[in-house]
């Protein structure tokens, strides 16, 4: 019995883990960091793994991954996402700097609004995906992936340094995990539980808007967004208060802790990309079916990295495209599984997939040749040397429940 | 290799003081109760068990493996007639978070697979030593059973080697 997909650390015992952590205290390089919620994870029986250099729970002892997944869809869950890189940008030229590295229309966004966007390389490849909030004309708040932490830091530091050399006013500051925590509260009952603890009127905080307010007596930044397809928020909290705020939210039985396992299956059902699996520097937003991230104004200006390639792709098309893959039954197609057409010709591959707790059967996403991208196209997927039928499907697989003002 | 290592460890432990011995014995008893199974089952270091009656072995996965994997939602089992060598990959179990290959702990020819488990993979979680068995095979090299661990050795293996292997 060989566990192949699972990080090896899942199988570690608490005793050895503690010993390992003790040892790590005295070494610097490559050691997994603890988030502000580490103690809470331990207290709730979190099965801790080293995820992108941070000790985070795959799941907690009270629930299986699928129960936790369904609990999120029916009630609400808190995910520790403190490992993500939180960046603050100041200066009167911060918007023009940011637009020089992303295809977003920050200038056209109102203060206090957020957007999904991507850092692009010169070939239009995706360096990382991230959420940017225009706090004010001269202030931005960015949340990007832990797995790309060093790359993102370097990218922001180098590009802003060049900007400053041209006498522009922009400074980039990173929050370390010891300074700031970040939790995602997701699910249909997330907001009503948060409302009991905050003076921020959440009926006004629509999807992809952000503001600062008090939560359980602590000044936090609340952004209406998430990675599950459910209504919910991400709350950025001073590190020393993160546990207190999280515990206050957990007081109600309607909110429980959830780990990386449920986070992955929830985001897959929601059709959301995982950087490193579904997108990376080798694909452009057009190929990744994220063309909508190239803002209209920016297409006209054509002044973002890789604009020539991306605009040509928008006009002339691409050879491969990210699609959803649905299987009503059978073994789930996971990362690396080969996709074939009905003649048995290889036409693509799966980039992530898992059984779907909400729908039954399996969900996956992957890249196929352009002519096979239409929903309902029947394909063959090869899993452990066995062919199985699958169908190209529209994403999200589970309808999104974002709080959008009508 | 694995077996030798754990026998060595076991002998080290037995040469220790009485009080330690008592503690170990007590924890073995607790573990045996916790992971309760037939003492005649033999375990592989890949967490399969095999129970042999006459020349037919029934194969399943251990409680530890079942717990590590989480809710099993799909079981791909070897078909009757398949000839397997000890250590051959012969199927897979899938949970939401991971896929785990099944390896045959002994050589033989598959005589039966558990169709109930194919229909209800959750049986592997609820009854890994009984209703959640995976397949049966006619042993071609029964002497291989000596290379496997008995329950006590397997529990020691879990407490020592598995932890070390995953550090």
UniProtKB/TrEMBL annotation, chain A:
Domain GCVT N-terminal: 37-296
Subcellular location: Mitochondrion
InterPro entries: GcvT, GcvT/YgfZ/DmdA, GcvT/YgfZ_C, GcvT_C, GCVT_N, TrmE/GcvT-like
Chain residues that bind substrate: 234
Major localisation: mitochondrion
GO cellular component assignments: glycine cleavage complex; mitochondrion
Annotated keywords: Aminotransferase, Mitochondrion, Transferase, Transit peptide
Domain of life assignment: Eukaryota
A Pfam match: GCV_T_C
Domain Aminomethyltransferase C-terminal: residue ranges: 320-398
Recorded catalytic activity of this chain's protein: N(6)-[(R)-S(8)-aminomethyldihydrolipoyl]-L-lysyl-[protein] + (6S)-5,6,7,8-tetrahydrofolate = N(6)-[(R)-dihydrolipoyl]-L-lysyl-[protein] + (6R)-5,10-methylene-5,6,7,8-tetrahydrofolate + NH4(+)
EC number(s) given by UniProt: 2.1.2.10
Single GO term (MF): aminomethyltransferase activity
Top enzyme category: transferase
Biological process terms in GO annotation: glycine catabolic process
Family indicated by similarity: Belongs to the GcvT family.
NCBIfam families: gcvT, PRK00389.1
Known partners and oligomeric status: The glycine cleavage system is composed of four proteins: P, T, L and H.
Annotated function: The glycine cleavage system catalyzes the degradation of glycine.
Protein name in the entry: Aminomethyltransferase
From TrEMBL, chain B:
Swiss-Prot/TrEMBL cofactor(s): (R)-lipoate
Residues where N6-lipoyllysine is found: 97
GO biological processes: glycine decarboxylation via glycine cleavage system; protein lipoylation
CDD domains according to UniProt: GCS_H
Predominant subcellular localization, coarse grouping: mitochondrion
UniProt KW keywords: Lipoyl, Mitochondrion, Transit peptide
Residue ranges of domain Lipoyl-binding in the record: 56-138
A single cellular component GO annotation: mitochondrion
Subcellular localization(s) per the UniProt record: Mitochondrion
Record's cofactor remark: Binds 1 lipoyl cofactor covalently.
Record-linked InterPro entries: 2-oxoA_DH_lipoyl-BS, Biotin_lipoyl, GCV_H, GCV_H/Fam206, GCV_H_sub, Single_hybrid_motif
PROSITE patterns: BIOTINYL_LIPOYL, LIPOYL
Subunit record text: The glycine cleavage system is composed of four proteins: P, T, L and H.
Similarity field: Belongs to the GcvH family.
Function: The H protein shuttles the methylamine group of glycine from the P protein to the T protein.
Protein name: Glycine cleavage system H protein
